[in-house]
Every structure is written in C-alpha cells, then in structure tokens.
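Meet the record:
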Amino acid sequence: MTLIKSISGIRGTIGGPTGDTLNPLDIVKFVTAYATFIKKNRPQGSGKIVVGRDARISGEMVKNVVCGTLMGYGYDVINIGLATTPTTELAVRMSGADGGIIITASHNPRQWNALKLLNNEGEFLNKEEGNEVLRLAEEENFEYADVDHLGKYIEDDSFDEKHINAVVQLPLVDKEAIRNARFNVCVDSINSVGGVILPKLLEKLRVSYKFLNKEPNGDFAHNPEPLEKNLTGIMDEMKHKHYDLGIVVDPDVDRLAFISENGEMFGEEYTLVSVADYVLSRMEEDGKKGLTTVSNLSSTRALRDVTEAHGGKYFAAAVGEVNVTTKMKEVGAVIGGEGNGGVIYPESHYGRDALVGIALFLSALARKEMKASQFRKTFPPYFIAKNRIDLTPETDVDKILEKVKEMYSNEQVNDIDGVKIDFADSWVHLRKSNTEPIIRVYSEASTMEQADALGKKIMQVVYDMQ
C-alpha cells in the first residue's frame, strides 16, 4: 500500500486499486474533503482556490481531476500551471484565494505524486486542520454544487514573474553586489519546474548560468532528493569547468543545496546556516540585536552556534514545516527552516523557498567577496549520521522512548517530537516515522565517525530493551 495520508495532504504512487494508491477516485474524495473544510471555515470567502503543479508525468492528469472536482464543488479555480511550491503559496495570498492545492510529491521518485493543502495565507494546514480534512474524507458526506453554481476555470501564468519580483525586491537581496560579482553558476533543476523559473530569476539578478536537466518533462534524470549521492553529474561538471557555484533544487523548488566551486558539496544542512548568518549579520549592521532563529530538532547544531555568535537566541521545533513556521511565529524568528535545505524567510512568506535562499546566498557571497568553499569554512564543522531501527508490530515505541529519556535524564532532553538528547559536543534524536514502521535515529558530532558511533550506541540501548 503506497497511499499515505498525513496532516498536509495525501501522497502515493500513481495507478493501482482504489484505497491503496493515488488514483482519480481517491483524488476526488480528498479534494472534496478539502473543499468542504475550506467552505466550512471560510463561508464568506472569495470562492477561489489556486492550483499549481510540478512537472511530474502524472501532473496533467491529477491537475484535471483536482480542478474539475473543485469546480464541481462550486469553487472558481485559478490554475497557475507549472509552478513551484513557494510560487503557489504566494499566489494564494496575491490572488486573495481561500486556499490552494500544490500537486507535487516533492523529492519522491517519478511514479509518486501528492496533494499538498494550503490555507488562505498560502501556508500548510496545521495538525488539527489536516486531521479534520482526513475525517471529512472518511465520512464522504459531500454535497456538490448544482448546475447554476459550478465554479469557473481561470488560467493565470503571471505568478512566476510576481514571485521573482517579490524576491529581488527584498531589502537584503543585494542586487548591485550580485551584479558586480559577475557570477557564473551551474544549476541542476531535475527536469521539473526549476528549469522554468530559475533562469528568469538568474537573468533578473544578472547571473550567468548553465542548466543541467532543464527540460520540465518530469522524467527525472536521477533520484530527485538533493543529496550528495544523487548529484554526481553536477559535481563532475563543477570539477571540470569553471563555475562560482552549483545550485540544486528538488522538483517543487522548496529545497535547496549548493556545491562549492571545487565540486564539493557545501552541505545541505548548511544552506539554512549560511543564509541565516547573512540575515543576522545584515540586521546587526542595522542595529537590531537579540534576534531569534528556528529549525527542527533533526537539523544541525550549527544554526544554534551561529545565532548565539550574533547575540541571538535559537529555538528548536518538532520535525515538519508547519511545526517550524508555528514556532517561528511564536518566538518572532527572523529566519528559520529545516536542515534538508529548506529556507523560511518571513520577510517574504512563511514557506520554504529556494528562490529566496538563492538570492540571499548570492548576496552573502558577493558582499563577502570570497569563494563558496571559503565561505563554508567560516561555519562550525558538524556531521550528521542517519540510521534507523526497524520495528515489529509488538514494539511499544512510546515505552522505549520514555525509557531512553529516563536513562539520559542527566543530559539536556527535548521530548516535543520523540526524544532528543543534547550532549556537550554532540546530540542524538530518536523519533517514530509517520510513514514507515521504523524509529529514525539522527546523530551529530564533529566527525562522521563519531556521529555514527553515537547513533549506533543509542540504537544498541534500544535493542537491549526489546
């Protein structure tokens, strides 16, 4: 069974039996549940829903089902076509819509697709809202519009330009410094919507570029998750030709990774760290102090170190973008995100946005007048090991995590999402997966060997309990 229901929507592989995969019948059910939820919560709203999609092969089919279902429920559909996740988020706000649906399975392989659900602020539904949509879907107590109240269908391809203009107009995007630096970059856009919007952004910033896997046909040239093991093509290109920077995005362009001029990974965890360092530095120059940042519990400690070095305060959130944005609003964070390359900059909007990350990173690199590899060395060196514990149906995960928490009660322990144990120079985080029968074990230390050893040590503690 590949149909996965979560608070932010539904995802699965295309085709197969109903109830087990992402197919037209289940798409109708979940889209109708979402429309019912939106109508219930915004009865006097604009009556408009934005729909955007990445370039997946199944995207056209899913889009047609989604749009037809919304129209059948009575909503006017603003179809913005091939669009990034952050573009769709911004389009909801800019158009005054009641919500939005992003058709993308993010970094999942080509056979997957998904429906990501937005509120009228262009932000993901929170846990309670997501659970309400799932409840409505199970009930299937729907009432569609009659013939005189069907929704209209509108196509609007103007939001790429609006998104780009909003990015380049951000006060901390130093257009002049970027232009004077005469950057030459190489971009891997994984045969999706990054190949549509990123050339326009780079041209606006006067950055020279070469694209790999540019054609937005959804036939991904490699595993689309922007991890080092999947990026040998662009890394080889960087090593053999002269570029100042390599830029890699996932299919819906909300995650971002950089490659230094020497062909080495800048480090996905350090995308947020480097951008946050730049934002904090610029705000310090303007006399602002005591600033706050947020990332999730499984992200590098380097963000905390950088924040404190600037006299600010760091806060941790549970894993998941909506949890990070909720915490950011609570503490008034000036920047936040996730260690998977997700940059959330509230000055723009509360959503991961690779375009914002690119513009701010290029601004930092230009103003510092240093190579990317030199920039990377200015940050604390940490390494994260990722392991897993496979579970049996008899495993009592909550009991195990509670025992781990008790065993390490003398250390700094955070239990808002599983159990994270902070040691003086390292940490380990255990949390139950929402999609697989496993416990994820993330650990960080000053070397990969130490990080892996720490993770395996805690794993052995768990095994000894079973």
